[in-house]
Amino acid sequence: MQAIRALERAIDRLEQDVEGLVSAASGPSPGIDAAAARTALRSLDSLITELKGQDVKDQVGG
């Protein structure tokens, strides 16, 4: 469970970094694909949710 929390914190920081980079860019930045970054972060969020569910099942013996 600690690893999952660490992943959540890392993703939160990445989300903040992406938002900061996107808002700092005066125009479309060729080095940053904001939509792809957000999609990847959502995918990580989904994975964490799935891992949490498995962790709960493991704790109750299911």
How would you sum up this structure, described in words?
The chain is built from two helices and no strands. It is mainly alpha-helical. It has one domain. The radius of gyration is 15 Å and the shape is elongated. The two termini are 16 Å apart. The model has no long low-confidence stretch (mean pLDDT 80).
**Biggest sheet details:** none
* Class from helix and strand fractions: mainly alpha
Strand content: under 5%
Total strands: 0
Low-pLDDT parts are: none
The best one-word shape is: elongated
In total, the number of domains comes to: 1
Radius of gyration equals 15 Å
Task: Count the DSSP helices.
Answer: 2
In short:
The protein has about 60 residues and is mostly helical.
